[in-house]
Amino acid sequence: MPRLFRFALAVVLYAAVTAPAHGQSTMVAEAAPATSRPAPAPLSVQQIFEQSAPAVVLIAQYDANDKMTSLGSGFAVSPNGVIVTNNHVITPDPGAVRIAVKVPNGRVFTNVRIIYTDARRDIAILSVNATGLPRLKIGDSDAVQVGDEVVAIGNPEGLELTITSGIIEGIRLDPGTGTRFIQHQAPISHGSSGGPLLNMRGEVIGINAFMLKDAQNINGAVPINYAKPYFHDTATTTWEEYARVAPTPAASRPTPAVPPLPGRPAPSGRIEPGVYFEGAADYRQADDSFRLGFAASLYDTVSMFAAAAKDSGDLSGGTSAALFYCLAGHASKLGQLSGWVATTAQAAANDQYPVVLIVAQYCAAPFQNVLTFWESGTEYLAGNLNFQLGFAAGMADTASLLAMIGQNTGTLSSQGTTELFTCLDSHGDKLGEFASWVNTVLAGASPDDSAAEVIAQTCMP
Prior knowledge:
This protein has 14 helices and 15 strands. It has 461 residues and is an alpha+beta fold.
């Protein structure tokens, strides 16, 4: 069951009765005593290659004349044929009609099925009909530190099972997508995409995804923690079926049509609730300005929805979905949403309205009596770029969370929304105090949880 749906159910149940959320038991289990274990000794590059190379695969696409159109890498994470790679490795080439996965022992699998794809984070999880495959050990990308030694294994330019080494140069946040990437020094080339980035214990910490063409050995990998939640899911479609509908991700789910605002025609298209700034781990990696912006927007956006709920009694009349659709329509990437919010605030800066109210008005949802930390468009524009990116991320995430609740339950009750706002309001009458509380909550959260959802769950009984 998706995390957002579980939270949606908890909000609705709370509106009727007070009960433990998410099916949690009221019994408290006694923790087992902790035992300390010595950290495993680092391996040599040769040892890492010997134990890891058998699990690294070559992935190629072919046209109707059986000519290779592209190639990439991947790696097995299960003996039963679960393969991890980049989304762009399996996105169909023009003219490609089939895909093949070759393992180092020479076996080739052509019946490739799709478990999960995510174009924004550039990950894909595949399944092939195999047993007994060597598999890689999976590490924790949240534990990666700048200066750590790493090795990369892949098939650059078709040179199978090439190994390179280097160090972690940085942990970066891509402002265009709101996702993290690991910047490293282990050289990779075309064909290396999808291959593993390993620490010196032989554990996968990233999926090699790109190199900067005109830079001096700057390479990027997707954190492996982004892919972990999908390793045990079931394949949903064949690659050939996926190729006919790409670039739509195979894992996307159907959503209801957008209801109209009162007196207005329904917007065209369908909404896709989701978050841009996805994980608590992402939040912890961001700088102070970004986190301050995220906290301000979390508070302000919930305040906006609480005001709408008070005015209407609930948000089931299409307002929440229409507002989300408006935000999502300006935000195929986080940077685009941030730029649109800044432009919107600039146009209305002289009116001294709260920036969330300005945005709501531009989205044809004129809520009143909105309480904010970040009060005016002028103040918003005075913040730096990272603050504005954080603010946009918080707005998109929180509106999306509330839209998902409304879709799954048919209503977003006034009580549920105002209780959430009341909880947030009780944690600080100054932005610095509130941001400090948000930091504390997310410091202990699961790395893959949505940051906005973690805060919402914390505010539930």
